[in-house]
Amino acid sequence: MSFLLRFLMLFMPLLRWPLRAWINTHASPSDLEELSLASDKPVCYVLPVASVMDWLALEVVCAEHGLPRPQLAGNRMPSMQRAVVLALPVGRSRERSELHRIVSRGLHDKSFDVQMVPVSVFWGRNPVKETSLFRILFADSDRTGRLRKFLIVLANGRNTLVHFGQPLDYRGFLDEDAAPDTMVRKLVRVLRIHFRRQRAATLGPTLSRRSQLINSLLADPDVQHGIEQAARRENVTVSAARSRARDYANEIAADYSNIAIGFMLRVLTWLWHRIYDGVDVRHLARLRATTHDRREVIYLPSHRSHMDYLLVSYILYKEGLALPQIAAGVNLNFWPVGALLRRCGAFYLRRSFKGDRLYTAVFRAYVDVLITRGQPMKFYPEGGRSRTGRLLSPKTGMLSMAVTSALGGKGAPAAIVPVYIGYDRVMEVNKYFDELRGTRPKKGESMGDLVRGSTKVLKRKYGRVFVSFGEPIDLQSYADEHLPDWRQQMRTLDMDARPRWLQDFVAALAERVMEGINATATLNASGLASLVLLGSPQKAVAEDEMVHTLSLLAQLARRSPYSRDATAPAETDGHKLLAEAEPLMRLIRVPHAWGDVLTVESRQAVLLTYTRNNVMHLFALPSLVANFFAHFEHRDRARVLDDAVELYPLLASELFLRWPLEQAREALDQAIDGLLDCGFLLTDESGQLRRPEAGSNAFAALMSLSRIMREALERYAMTVMLLSHNLEAGTVERGRFERQCQLMAERMAILTGRNSPEFFDSRLFRNHLQTLVRVGLLQQQGNKLHIDEALRDVAEHALQLLGPDLRQSIAHLTSLPHLEDGDAQGSDAAKTASAG
Questions:
Q1: Which of 308, 361, 306, 365 is nearest to 334 (CA)?
Q2: Is the pLDDT of residue 410 over 80?
Q3: Which EC class heads this enzyme's classification (predicted)?
Q4: Contact (CB, 8 A) for 150 and 207
Q5: Helices of type H across 586-636
């Protein structure tokens, strides 16, 4: 480095304090343990350019985080006592000789090793193209003079990111047969590629001004064609149609503002600490590797709260990753929130494009622009927020546009990243409950609602937030596997058509995304306790039983994990888990001489179903197996597996379970092993599976586990029993039959005292029928369903899992005449029951 740097080294103690007073640095990754720096190897930091300010920022971050402090290399090698810093050379400079010295030492001394850590320093993070004198002077750039660098630090010092790359495998990189000069050139080339990719991963692509973007949309050939068609179809001038297209583009397009991002960063940092106890983020290292791989990244998160919109962007920004543009419903485009979200990267879409071809053309062109430029994007595959906590069936319109753009060769290879977002407690859950119950209709968002809602929200704590980035789906590789001739198909695709092969491909991909979201779920204490409490018949559990069951379920989640990405509780002590969950769940303690009983108010029990539904899929297979022992003491393992595999498709489609049907038996077999290891099941002398002794804590835990899937199995039993009742007729009308299933579930809810509106959700019965069609037990022709004779055996097996009272109730209800004129009365009665 230059003489100036060595001179400043003498005054580092004096320079550090004024620098700390001015700049505000963020380290990326936030958890520097991701670097896995070895304590027995010296460290060499490598900067992309020789810069006094970059070096000082690095020194400040190392001091704050306890990393080895960077010192100038000079003529000395890095050692355990002295970490050094150098910059990539420009021509035949001193830095080249410093790098040459380190490489030569490694070639001649086989015992010498060093951890070379590439470090990128970003002063401000504005990706907008430099179009004004202000931006030219103050926006960060790859290479700047000293005066401009000073101005950049002056303008952007409050928003400084220091990113540490993974240490280079120094010994693995060296080629003992190569000359030192050759190795230096190779090392410089590798590091320059790293820094270039890191800059792209952090800032994203360079963005044009919004006016330029809108003009480019109107110049798109498909939009031009859409304008001409609209003019002919509506008998208006081309100028009028073009003006409408411009209005659409203005309605849709984001308007990135670094000032708005900085403002929202401060607001959200305050907000998270105000209402949440922390944000738990998982699998960032894998995501970082994906973004660094020069890929277009499409984030597809679950959607449970309005907080989701900025939560993922907040995390990505704090972690030094490029902000995505976010697809937001046009209902959020109200003053002043709409403009602020737009400047934070939101682009707006209407709920339905149907009937407006010009709007569709403009929106598709906008998605094409994002894909072509490599701009990360985010949208919600469910379309809207889940009111029940379950993942909703995916909407495929937006995904179809992204797929056709990415596979059409309009940008870099794309990676789809499923994202799980979970909460200890969702702030809108009361509103969701009222909407499900029918006492509060859905309505558009407004500033008044926001102000009224925020005053309540800020007075409460909602526990922790859990965000987990799932296994990325390489879109091209996925297409190669599931649509081998996709390249030829995409070349001949008419953008105004949606051929069947494309619909099927996108639908399968959407299912895969939903499975990926659930595969990376986080199991928290309140989710576990909700599973136990809501599984008890009267929503009341003895404290000692709760503690023991929590401990066993936590052990099961660790011993038999749902997937490698699912996160089980770090704590398996039932007392600690209960202490964490109790205030969030608002449990009521009923004192008793034999020990406290834990319960909740009726309304709160319904609200907790949302928390339960977030994580119930993690125990789907163990719970299915446990149901075979709810009414039988002994069962043959092979028979249990046979019957469970028969029922598996129902649970898989309802909960987006990750195993394909051909892997279900193996997965269920592993679930049985987990149940045996944790004491939920035992084996007798003959090798048969048996349940623990009645009255034991293990038996109570097994019954609690079985009830997790009980409602799903009951709904399934109702469906197949009603179908088998129609076997003589051979066919049923689909729409009418779905209504009969819903009415029957409403009736069961009243008879059993269930305070759960989701129990008779019509979408669940619709999903059951689709599953039965898929496995061949039903054949659909138009609106008619033809029933296969094999359904009778399935109905008998499903009934075996239910208790005698439920079996009798279902058998009685299926024998009654089902009259269409009872629909309204049944619905009203069910709402009255659920209002409880």
A1: 306
A2: no
A3: transferase
A4: no
A5: 602-615, 620-627
3 state SS for 651-701:
HHHHHCCCCCHHHHHHHHHHHHHHHHHHCCCEECCCCCEECCCCCCHHHHH
631 — phi, psi (to 5°)? Answer: -125, 10
Phi, psi of 825 (to 5 degrees): -60, -40
- What letter represents residue 215's amino acid? N
pLDDT in tens, 135-170: 555 566 666 767 777 787 877 878 899 999 999 988
| C-alpha dihedral sign at 696, 700, 706, 710 | positive
pLDDT value at 578 more than 70: yes
Segment 164-186 mean pLDDT: 86
User: What CA–CA distance (Å, rounded) separates 709 from 384?
Assistant: 25
Cα–chain center distance at 332: 21
- What residue type is 164 in one-letter code? F
Alpha carbon distances (Å) from 60 to 45, 54, 341, 483, 515: 14, 10, 33, 52, 43
The residue written with tokens 């490694």 in the block is 106
For 45, phi then psi, to 5°, come to -85, 140
Which whole-number Å values give the CA distances from 543 to 68, 553, 591, in the listed order?
50, 15, 10
Distance CA 323, CA 377 (A): 8
Residue 722 one-letter amino acid: L
> Given strand 778-781, what is the order of strands in its sheet?
731-733, 784-787, 778-781
- The three state secondary structure string of 462-529 is CCCEEEEECCCEEHHHHHHHHCCCHHHHHHCCCCCCCCHHHHHHHHHHHHHHHHHHHHCCECCHHHHH
Phi, psi angles (nearest 5°) of residue 380: -100, 115
Contact 330, 346 (CB under 8 A): no
Model pLDDT for residues 281-337, shown as the tens digit of each residue = 999 999 999 998 878 899 999 999 988 888 898 899 989 999 999 998 888 888 888
CA distances from 675 to 117, 213, 313, 552 (A): 45, 58, 39, 10
Q: Are 419 and 302 in contact (CB under 8 A)?
A: yes
Structure tokens at 387: 């009111």
Rounded to whole angstroms, the Cα distance separating 473 from 514 reads 12
Question: Could you give the CA distance from residue 138 to residue 17 in angstroms, rounded to a whole number?
Answer: 23
Cβ atoms within 10 Å of 239's Cβ, excluding its own: 10
Cα three-residue angle 329-332-334, rounded to 5 degrees: 140
Residue boundaries of the structural domains of the chain: 3-203, 256-499, 525-706, 710-835
The CATH architecture to which 256-499 belongs is 3-Layer(aba) Sandwich (3.40)
Cα(313)–Cα(297) distance, rounded to whole angstroms? 13
Q: Which tokens belong to 619? A: 């125990």
Q: Tokens in use for 59?
A: 């020194």
Tell me if residue 128 falls in helix, strand or coil: strand
Residue 81 tokens read as 């006592």
Q: Exposed (0-12), middle (13-18) or buried (19+): which is 652, by Cβ within 10 Å?
A: buried
Question: Cβ distance 527 to 614 under 8 Å?
Answer: yes
Tokens of 773: 């069609």
